[in-house]
């Protein structure tokens, strides 16, 4: 039997269990959006700057504005912004530890260990009314961000190492699929008549720790990565057992031979730290490609749409913008599924090029739509259609591919350091966009997406010139391609 073409029950369980972490990441990304007004009111009450009565008392000028909308109070605005942004700060800090955690006790035990963080974060947010909600939520969001920074490296690393070559792209793209499903779930149950209301919002935030509980029960059933067992620990027999569990009964000689070659090479290379990876001329080309893929994912403008889609739809004249935002979530999920199906047939490079080029055109159309909708009412449909298409193109290539291509571009020695660096780059860009987008939007107004269109054009050209196709190649062949240039 061809080992590259088999999908066994154990492999399905292992990949499903791993991507529960990604689902939790997506849920945590999206959950803070819908109940913003409700949470701001609780923050204002807790800070003593607003009460039910102050909403009724006649006050003058700007004070009247603050008393009617507690979110306008500077203290509330500060704590609210911190609740959103601290998630990315947690992710930035922990993404450096991915290699350390993954190598410490293995990929599976690493994922199991960090679930403590997710459960603690869920409890802090779920029980935030017992003390000061603003402090408890910010602590919970920080811990959850710290957890998600580790997950965004460990999940693609583990899945990339256990996936058969023929399905490596499709299984790698499941990390992104789980993230967008998590975002969609958080948007739906965050509606005010479900959990996004005055009574239930702590439960809505607290549920972000729930997948970690299920994952902790399933992880002991998952085999450790055979590549980790053989190449890191030198345990050939355990690696063989793990391969047979993942791929069923087959002749594992070829796979073990590939790992043996990689281990010999890794033993000859010094252990690659993050610092030595940055300084090394040997890996410079791979590293440039890996980091640019992550830059293109974050600076494409997609997060601006995720974070502020409701506001963008309001400007486009949609009467129920929150449902349009959920529509974006549904399209997100459908097109990520399409990417899972296509990525091992069409290839990574092709899908990334199609995605970036399509997003560039949509960003221009969105700008035209937003600019002219006061003159022509039908232009609001142009800007809305552009948003939906923009998201579709993103999920076909630039969304899922950067997460798993980094694991493909590097051999076992530098892989953990490369994944840590790429993850940190991703989280830092995410944080920068979240913090600066409102200011850039105020400065450029309707022209804000022209800035993203220009960046997308640059990323498309870079991908065309520099990014190799990794479909169906072994890790050895990919690395050799870079050294040949």
UniProtKB/TrEMBL annotation:
Signal peptide boundaries: none
Keyword DNA repair: no
Claim: Cell membrane is one of the keywords in the record: no
Principal location class: membrane
CDD domains for the chain: MFS_GLUT_Class1 (cd17431)
Transmembrane segments: 7-27, 78-100, 112-132, 138-159, 171-195, 201-222, 287-310, 322-343, 350-370, 376-396, 417-440, 446-465
UniProt GO cellular component terms: brush border; plasma membrane
Pfam families recorded: Sugar_tr (PF00083)
Sequence ranges assigned to domain Major facilitator superfamily (MFS) profile in this UniProt record: 14-471
Superkingdom in the source lineage: Eukaryota
GO biological process: D-glucose import; dehydroascorbic acid transport
Gene Ontology molecular function: D-glucose transmembrane transporter activity
Membrane topology: Multi-pass membrane protein
Localisation: Membrane
NCBIfam families according to UniProt: SP (TIGR00879)
Family in the record: Belongs to the major facilitator superfamily. Sugar transporter (TC 2.A.1.1) family.
Protein's recorded name: Solute carrier family 2 member 2
Source species of the chain: Tetraodon nigroviridis
